[in-house]
Amino acid sequence: MKLKNKVAIVTGSGQGIGKETALALAREGAKVVVSDVTDKIHEVVKEIEALGSEALAVKANVSSSKDTEEIAKKTLKKFKRIDILVNNAGIFPFKPFVEMKEEDWDNVLSINLKGTFLCTKAVLPTMIKQKYGKIINISSIAGTVVGFPKLVHYCASKAGIAGFTRGAALDLAEYGINVNAIAPGAIETPGAVAAMGGKKAFQQFAQTIPLKRLGQPIDIANLVVFLASDDSSNITGQCIVSDGGLTDQ
Ligand SMILES: NC(=O)c1ccc[n+]([C@@H]2O[C@H](COP(=O)([O-])OP(=O)(O)OC[C@H]3O[C@@H](n4cnc5c(N)ncnc54)[C@H](O)[C@@H]3O)[C@@H](O)[C@H]2O)c1
């Protein structure tokens, strides 16, 4: 087990990439805080406990500093340390740029980008005290490698996460904290299937991917485990693409 007794927080872990990541971290021995705005967190906690690991459900909205401080507080109360933070919570509401309103922009930026900032700030005092921490931010190929139609706000937020990752990696290196990002391509999650017009349409889209397969949540979860483990101790400030070759064409 690569993460025995490490304590991890995963935001947006009620479903999709976040849920699979929470389970993968637990399989490697981590104690996991499952956080999301939905009640699905309780089911995920049960699944982790069934694996023989410990877990805690914390219902929280990452765009609220009150909530993100609460996640850190409850984690410390139960598990006494915070080793790993996975900033995964995110939304991708498609809308043509010409119809996009200020509130659409604010909503996406406050969850995807400000949420990453707030969760990181909330765990920092603990990670600095420990002189140890692994922060993994879920960005996207959209905004960092390519554009994506009807997602101007999303592309801006995900490019922002990649920039945040580079900057934070430099500021936090002296405290023994690694900060990295992952840029997934098309991953088959409940959110993405709905956004891409259903399973059939998403499978058709998969034919445009060189590896001819949609990415699965476990593909990203395995990469998170690597970045959360000491196998990646010399990596910081990077944004690693996992997209089946989609943006290599
Ligand atoms: N699926 C893809 O193809 C893909 C590609 C690139 C990047 N991503 C990124 O991966 C991450 C996870 O996406 P997914 O595909 O699993 O999506 P999903 O919609 O299936 O799951 C996202 C989870 O985040 C939660 N969430 C939303 N707003 C929140 C908030 N304010 N506070 C806390 N939790 C909140 C949702 O309730 C949901 O459980 C997102 O950041 C997304 O942008 C996904």
Description:
This protein has 249 residues and is an alpha/beta fold. The protein has helices at 16-27, 41-50, 65-79, 102-130, 141-144, 152-172, 190-195, 199-206, 217-228; strands at 7-11, 31-36, 55-59, 84-87, 133-138, 177-184, 239-242. It has one domain (7-187, 216-248): 3-Layer(aba) Sandwich (Rossmann fold). Strand 4 (84-87), helix 4 (102-130) and strand 5 form a beta-alpha-beta unit. The chain starts with 6 loop residues before the first strand and ends in a 7-residue tail after the last strand.
Estimate percent helicity: 40-55%
CATH superfamily heading: NAD(P)-binding Rossmann-like Domain
CATH class: Alpha Beta
Shape: globular
Tally the beta strands: 7
Write out the strand line-up for the largest beta sheet, numbering strands in chain order. Answer: 3-2-1-4-5-6-7
Which structural category do the helix and sheet elements fall into?
alpha/beta
Q: Low-confidence stretches at least 5 residues in length (pLDDT < 50)? A: none
Strand content: 15-25%
Terminal CA distance: 37 Å
List each distinct ligand once.
nicotinamide-adenine-dinucleotide
Largest sheet: 7 strands, parallel
Helix and strand succession? EHEHEHEHEHHEHHHE
Q: Which architecture would the CATH scheme give at its second level?
A: 3-Layer(aba) Sandwich
Gyration radius over CA: 17 Å
